[in-house]
Amino acid sequence: MAAKQILSIPGPDGSGVEVPYFEFGTSNSGPHLTVFAGIHGAEYSSIAAAKQFVSELKDDEVVGRLTVVPIVNVLSFWARTAFVVPVDNQNLNRAFPGNPQGSFTDIYAFQIFEKFIRNTDYLLDMHAGDIPESLEPFTIFEESSVEAKSLAMAKSYGIKHIVRQRQAGLVVAGSTSATAAAIGIPAIIAESGENGILDPVAVERHLRGLRNLARTLGVLNGEPFAGSPNILYDGWNWLRAESAGWWQPAHKTGTDVKAGDLLGTLGDVWGDSQTEIRAPQDGTVLFQTSSPAVSENGILVGLALR
Ligand SMILES: [Zn+2]
Predict the structure, then answer these.
(1) Pick the CATH number of 236-304 from 2.40.50.100, 1.10.760.10, 2.60.40.10, 3.10.20.30
(2) If you ran DSSP here, which 8-state letter would residue 227 be given?
(3) Parallel, antiparallel, or unpaired for β 274-278 and 262-267?
(4) pLDDT tens profile 71-92
(5) What CATH architecture is 3-232?
(6) Ligand 1: distance of its center to the CA of 126 in Å?
(7) Which of 98, 101, 179, 297 is deepest in the core (most CB within 10 A)?
(8) Model pTM?
(9) 39 C-alpha to center of ligand 1: Å?
(10) Phi and psi for 82 in degrees, rounded to 5?
């Protein structure tokens, strides 16, 4: 049986923030997989998949050890904030491994890292496109000493697009997968769903991947399915806005572009001026901001590189 547990993190006003999670198996069980969802509290397809996974698990199915945290960022979930923790507006997935003397998000990241990441054998962190973000499903792993194992995890998740995040030209620091890999724990981030929509197809894609990953790692019994064909990308180019403006992307996510192709236009709200944003190199649009409202230095397009 799953044991329902609570991690209590000191809150900004002195009260505790309660993070519910589930434990299956014991420290004597087989390999330990830790599953996160809701690091970003409005990425509902990932949260729904974690909830459904737990509710459908049968007692005799778990042969290893499983920890599932369906809503890591509970304050963001209740406040419906995209990307950030509402207390200090910091992105939790840029704050790991955290800092007990830092801002609220730094302290929160520290508690989550020490409790859940430091002592697991494998980490899966499920995400989706947030409220203003459209997204083609993909998985991410890091260039690291454990990258062969992380890549095998990504392949077993069964999503076509797999991005290796290079250390050189790293687009973001402080993510779950990067900080786990840095201490030798194989980890992936899996993205399915977009625009903060609770989409059953996106939920099912996460569920199928999660179950297959857990079987492949020997955490759940049952035969895993063989990996499907995939495309491996070597890093990213995240294009950002030089100034705030009205953004209109030119393509659907999943589109392959060549260097020089139009990616979208960024104009002022009067419609007086318009800047064409073009691809600096060949790649595939795996996510992009779908909201027209983009602030200075805001992300426009995530271009995965071949
Ligand atoms: Zn996310």
Answers:
(1) 2.40.50.100
(2) P
(3) antiparallel
(4) 999 999 999 999 999 999 999 9
(5) 3-Layer(aba) Sandwich (3.40)
(6) 8
(7) 179
(8) 0.96
(9) 6
(10) -80, 130
